[in-house]
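Please decode residue identities from the backbone states below.
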């Protein structure tokens, strides 16, 4: 594992931190407020807190946590629909483990499983397809969830199901895309952001050019980053250097993994199986145009929304967040998790009110995991 160790080398990290401090001081000489850098990806949020990078960087830098957790941004109504499908007779509902404990307005999938529903955790959509092969008398539904990172695997699985003509397999499609919510945040006059650390895994699929609008139209730098400590520190330094130099560009720190134009095989599968939804509801951001994907007509036989008559095919009343839950404000970077009045009090990993506390990419889970009860006890609830 020497290769990984190189990205965690303390001596190298000290050198990058010193460079960050120098550039931050140069920027600070011309401004009073801190440099606000949003890490879009929830995986980056966890890495920042796992390695204590928020404490190590210069005090003139503030990390803002973005909406890069696909489980967290789903509205509660979509969780309710998962439960509704799972409660139907003859259904085997399959999902990634992250989504099991996300609360709906009535119950979570974990609670529905405890109530007798046949809900199974899988590691990939191919596991769900195999369940459909083995249970031809049952309807197997896969909870298709995630950004562009997981979208190709679901698309390829649907293609495989079509080739084998497996008629008892469908996908409840909740795949979403990263660029539209970034634009929504940039259009928000109350959001003050100086630059972005871009998502590494998403960019591995789509490349770096879908972010061109951030630099071109909004004049903000963005650096696509890896997930090791030195990856993130170097990316922060690259963002700061752009700000200091008056530049706004899309740069690729994670070039060892992220190709400039993305993965052509993955992009082709996505294009064949999916099309844009006119709009999709995001928790904390509301409806965002062209930010979600749905299954094309050619593969409609594998669309759970069409088969079960749910989802965006049905007009439903909006489901409000639990009282006092500030998931939307946390997820869009308006407040830190500890400013939520429920953090560590009414909302803990054992009894969560919101998805951000239970998802492995949620900001609240990051604060709790790497700060724990100490963080909660030292934090006064927000007014």
């Amino acid at each position: 594992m020497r290769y990984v160790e190189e990205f965690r080398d303390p001596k190298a990290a000290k050198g990058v931190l010193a460079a960050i401090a120098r550039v931050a001081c140069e920027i600070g000489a011309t401004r009073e407020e801190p440099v606000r850098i949003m890490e879009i990806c929830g995986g980056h949020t966890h890495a920042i807190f796992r390695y204590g990078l928020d404490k190590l960087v210069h005090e003139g830098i503030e990390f803002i946590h973005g909406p890069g957790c696909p489980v967290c941004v789903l509205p509660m109504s979509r969780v309710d629909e998962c439960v509704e499908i799972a409660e139907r007779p003859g259904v085997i509902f399959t999902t990634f483990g992250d989504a099991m404990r996300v609360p709906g307005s009535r119950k979570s999938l974990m609670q529905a499983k405890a109530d007798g529903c046949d809900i199974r955790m899988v590691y990939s959509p191919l596991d769900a397809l195999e369940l459909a092969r083995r249970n031809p008398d049952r309807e197997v539904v896969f909870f298709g969830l995630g950004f562009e990172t997981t979208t190709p695997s679901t698309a390829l699985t649907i293609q495989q199901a079509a080739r084998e003509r497996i008629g008892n397999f469908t996908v409840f499609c909740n795949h979403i895309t990263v660029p539209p919510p970034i634009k929504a945040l940039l259009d928000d006059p109350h959001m003050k952001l100086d630059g972005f650390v871009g998502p590494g895994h998403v960019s591995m699929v789509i490349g770096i050019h879908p972010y061109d609008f951030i630099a071109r139209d909004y004049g903000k730098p963005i650096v696509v980053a890896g997930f090791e400590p030195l990856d993130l520190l170097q990316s922060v330094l690259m963002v700061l250097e752009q700000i200091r130099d008056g530049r706004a560009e899309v740069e690729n720190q994670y070039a060892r993994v992220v190709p400039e134009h993305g993965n052509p095989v993955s992009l082709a599968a996505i294009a064949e199986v999916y099309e844009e939804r006119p709009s999709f509801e995001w928790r904390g951001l509301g409806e965002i145009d062209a930010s979600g994907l749905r299954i094309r007509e050619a593969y409609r036989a594998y669309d759970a929304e069409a088969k079960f008559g749910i989802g965006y095919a049905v007009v439903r009343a909006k489901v409000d967040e639990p009282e006092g839950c500030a998931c939307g404000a946390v997820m869009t970077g308006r407040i830190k998790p500890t400013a939520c009045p429920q953090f560590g009090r009414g909302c803990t990993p054992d009894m969560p009110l919101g998805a951000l506390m239970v998802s492995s990419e949620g900001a609240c889970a990051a604060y709790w995991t790497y700060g724990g009860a100490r963080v909660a006890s030292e934090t006064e609830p927000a007014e």
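Observation: The chain has 16 helices and 13 strands.
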